[in-house]
């Protein structure tokens, strides 16, 4: 096959270009085309500056959960549309004394990242700080979720929501490779980040060692594992370890798990979204905890 360069070298001779009528003749027939002036019906708006999504909560459930959280007392800037402001005052949904700044919906949208579904509420506040590992691990009972370098805010938020729904004790994430508990993550969590403790560990392998000392057994989710999740769970204190969206569990984290397990998928589809897999694993672990 000829190379691209060879094909380019064999181009056919150029055909003579089209010669139109003299410019003056064209103008005499059609008349000169008037120049268009600037449009007067659309004044350009100043470009939206970059928004720090990590500094905001938005949406009804995330904001109301934050207002109800005692740890948020005395902090943050609460913005609400007139309708939402009436609701907060009427139903006493800001029990820790946050003052409402009323704002119209369009102005509120301009303060947030593009596409943010604010539902008339936004809360500018710093993300919550994490708790100590021992705070969620003692006494050793129930289920803890560990996330190994998950970075997608939607997935992490959905896992928070499922973990709270199925009664998990808390979530452990790696400090340097995890999104802030705000913005799109908090929206996907629907308020769960305000109610479920989160540990930000520097080293997950060492965190697993510490959890083992405290009486916990770690089960890592791995699609290539020999045992199924049902076979790996024993009903005791369990750490469910979820790998990242693309790479799965890292080698050292997997080696610190007591067992690796897969979710059987008889339908033949080889992979689940990590947040869906976490929800299934949490359901199965909660079922084994209660003996049902």
TrEMBL record:
Keywords for this protein:
Methyltransferase, Transferase
- Feature: compositional bias, Basic and acidic residues: 1-12, 20-33
Origin organism is: Brevundimonas viscosa
Q: Does the keyword Transferase apply?
A: yes
The annotated region (Disordered) lies at 1-54
Domain RNA 2-O ribose methyltransferase substrate binding, first and last residues per copy: 56-131
- What start and end residues bound the annotated signal peptide? none
GO cellular component terms, A-Z: cytosol
Q: Which Gene3D superfamilies does the UniProt record give?
A: 3.30.1330.30, 3.40.1280.10
What lineage is on file? Bacteria, Pseudomonadati, Pseudomonadota, Alphaproteobacteria, Caulobacterales
Cross-referenced InterPro entries: Alpha/beta_knot_MTases, Ribosomal_eL30-like_sf, rRNA_MeTrfase_TrmH, SpoU_MeTrfase, SpoU_subst-bd, tRNA_m1G_MTases_N
Q: Name one GO molecular function term.
A: RNA methyltransferase activity
Protein name, as recorded: 23S rRNA (Guanosine2251-2'-O)-methyltransferase
Give GO BP annotations, semicolon-separated. Answer: methylation; RNA processing
